[in-house]
Every structure is written in C-alpha cells, then in structure tokens.
Write a structure and sequence with these properties.
Strand content: 35-45%
Structural class: mainly beta
Largest sheet: 6 strands, mixed
Radius of gyration: 21 Å
Strand order of the largest sheet: 5-4-9-8-7-6
Shape: globular
Number of strands: 31
Helix content: under 10%
Oligomer: single chain
C-alpha cells in the first residue's frame, strides 16, 4: 500500500510569481490508513499548503467518456471519483487539469479545477485488485511528451494515458524490469521499490521515488529500472509518498505520515528540509516541471530568439533571430498530443532578422514551436494558439 510505502509541453507555460498554482498535492486525514481528504495547491518554495481544489465532500458531476453522459457513482466502492484510496496524481497543464486514479481502481479521472467538472475514463487495460498490493496504482506523472504515465507497485503495468480528438486512451506499455545491477535494492520488491511517486525528465525518462527513499531511473526505450541511490538527509522512518519537480529543477518530496516537505537534489540525492508544513499527510504530488530541464538555465541562446505573434489569427508566425545566432536552425511544430505536424529549416545570416514561417494546414488549436540549433539541440520553445 502507498503508505507502506515527469514533453515538451508543460514547462512552456513558464515560471511566474504564482508558481504554487502549478504544484498540487493529494492530502489525507491523520489515520493509520490512507483516507483521502482533498486536492490542494502547494507553495513548493515555502512548503505551505494553499487552496483546496476538490475535497472528499465536494458535490460532483461525473461525465463518463464511454457512456457519454452523467453517471452516478457508488460512493461505498473504490471505483468512484472521491474514493478514500487516492495515491496517484498528475497535472496536465496543456488543459490545466488534474488527472488521477484511485489506488484500487482502473478508473481514470480528469478534474477541471476551475469548473469542478470531472470526466471518467473507464478502461479495461489496468488490471487492479484491491487485495493485490502489487497491482495498486501508486505513481503517476506527466511525461515530457505531454502524455500521462502511471505505474503500479510491482512495475508490472506501465500505463500511458493520451488524448486525441477529445478522447482519452489508456495503453499498457509493458513490464518494468530490474536492472541486473540493482542487487538488494530491487524495484520490484515491496521493502525497497514499492509505493512513492514518480517524476519525468526532458528526455522522457522517469524517476521513481519509492516509499523506502530509494530512487530508480526508468529508461522508456527498454523499460529498465536502475537503482541510482537512496535519499539522504531525511529521518530514518520517513516514508516518501509524493514527489514532483519545482521551478528550480529540484525535487520536492512529501510523506503520508505527516512529516515535513524536503527539497532533493536529483544529482546528489541530498535532501534539505523546507519550512512550513510539518503535519500535512500527503499521498502524492504533481507539478508542470521536469528534471534536467536545461532550457531556462543553460540556453542563453534562447534570449536571442523569439516568436510572434503567439495568438495566430493569420497564416504565419515571425521568427526573430538576433546576430548571435548563425547557420541553419530547425523549426519544429508539435500538436498537444506530441505529434510533429510541421518541420522547416531556416538559414540565419549575420545580423538580426525576422523570418516569416507560413503555417500550412494547421487547424485551430494550441501548438508548441521548438527550435533546434545545427547540432540538433533544442534552444527555444514557445506555445502558440492558432485561432484562424
């Protein structure tokens, strides 16, 4: 059980003065077992909880994607939007929605924090049994490609939740296996690898922070989980149940046992206690940020580029390039499902210039414009909205 115990798109909304509105938590009551209380915002810089978005007592309307209408849920079951066993949460900033799954249920729920509307995505892909601890969904995050990912305790199901044409689809990507070098620190063993939460990096790899404090890196290309170390600087009995990346690229961890929040350096796995909350029971954390995101810290080239307008009601955008960038740059445009819908090479000569790029065949909607240098390294990203 949990108490035993990361696309290109989401970072582009930027870091602002209200960063706490991009950080969310599942919180619970002070009990020996998980009892869901609410979803709320978290000020990740100061470790302070904020607005309650949705509670166990909220009045709800649930729209079923399968049945195409409002449904009445059995509140006494685990298969409901306010189930007491909540332990998996992700933030989809492309739609500003919270995506979650009850721990003992295969149901996927999409909550609009503003309207409080909930969409139910029923699926037969997730194989979950309330009495089988290995099958419980306890880790969830948004990948760098914009899709949502969830993993059960034993890693036997790695779920991908994607959206296309307004419909959500759940796919099982396979079984995550232990790297041979893990030894006693097994990803698939209860004491060392179960529970916790996960984050994503900008290469669409995932890091699982197990309840034990062990950290595993999951390479999506081969679904291999490699033990990279154990968090230091937290109490011996600290149960790591929530993890999410803050605006500075550090990982914030939280506990279902009500301990303090900690900031963890992913490189050293050294933790530093945050001020603020001490007794908040947190079952999961979610944010729009990613590990190893070098776009803001390393890419000084980004200050030499810009795209305008970002709200496009004509058939083109302008790419502004100043004198510090020369050679060939590649412009890619992605839709919000992660599909590359347009690619164009731009030749940059000496001096500042504005290149007009015509958006051929792109329909109304949100897109991400990505620019890479001659080596293929991404140096600029920006979200645009086509309204034509």
């Amino acid at each position: 059980m949990k108490k035993h115990l990361f696309p290109l798109f989401l970072l582009l909304l930027g870091v602002d003065a209200h960063a706490q509105q991009d950080f969310f938590a599942i919180t619970g009551k002070d009990t020996q077992s998980i009892t869901f209380n609410d979803f709320r915002t978290i000020d990740a810089a100061n470790g302070i909880s904020g607005e309650k978005i949705f509670t166990a007592d909220s009045s709800v309307k649930v729209f079923s994607q399968t049945r195409k209408g409002i449904v009445a849920e059995d509140r006494s079951s685990y298969d409901n939007s306010q189930s007491i066993t909540m332990a998996a949460l992700a933030y989809d900033s492309s739609n500003n929605n919270l995506v979650y799954m009850p721990m003992f249920s295969s149901n996927v729920y999409i909550l609009n924090p503003q309207t409080k509307e909930i969409r139910l995505v029923e699926n037969n892909v997730a194989k979950i049994s309330s009495c089988d601890i290995k099958s419980h969904i306890t880790r969830m995050t948004t990948g760098y490609n914009g899709n949502i990912y969830a993993v059960n305790n034993a890693g036997t199901q790695f779920l991908e939740i994607s959206k296309k044409a307004g419909q959500y689809t759940v796919n099982d990507l396979g079984i995550i296996k232990d790297d041979p070098s893990n030894g006693r620190n097994s990803f698939t063993a209860m004491e060392t690898g179960f529970g916790g939460d996960m984050i994503a990096d900008t290469d669409n790899n995932f890091y699982v922070f197990a309840a034990s404090g062990n950290v595993f890196k999951i390479a999506t290309k081969d679904l291999n989980a490699k033990f990279i170390g154990k968090i230091t600087g937290i109490p011996d009995n600290y149960s790591v149940n929530g993890s999410a990346v803050n605006a500075q690229g550090k990982v914030i961890i939280a506990s279902a046992k009500g301990g303090a929040l900690y900031e963890v350096d992913l490189t050293t796995l050294q933790a530093k206690q945050l001020p603020g909350e001490q007794g908040l029971h947190i079952y999961d954390l979610a944010s729009k940020y990613f590990a190893n995101d070098k776009s803001s810290a390393l890419n000084t080239l980004a200050s030499n580029l810009d795209i305008y307008p970002t709200r496009v009601d004509e058939h083109y955008i302008n790419v502004h390039v100043n004198k510090n960038i020369k050679g060939i740059i590649k412009l890619n445009i992605f839709d919000m499902a992660g599909q590359n819908v347009m690619t164009q090479n731009l030749s940059v000569k000496d001096g500042s210039s504005d290149e007009k790029v015509y958006l051929k065949g792109l329909v109304t909607g949100a897109y991400i414009v990505n620019i890479a240098d001659e080596s293929g390294k991404a140096i600029f990203n920006k979200k645009i909205l086509i309204t034509k």
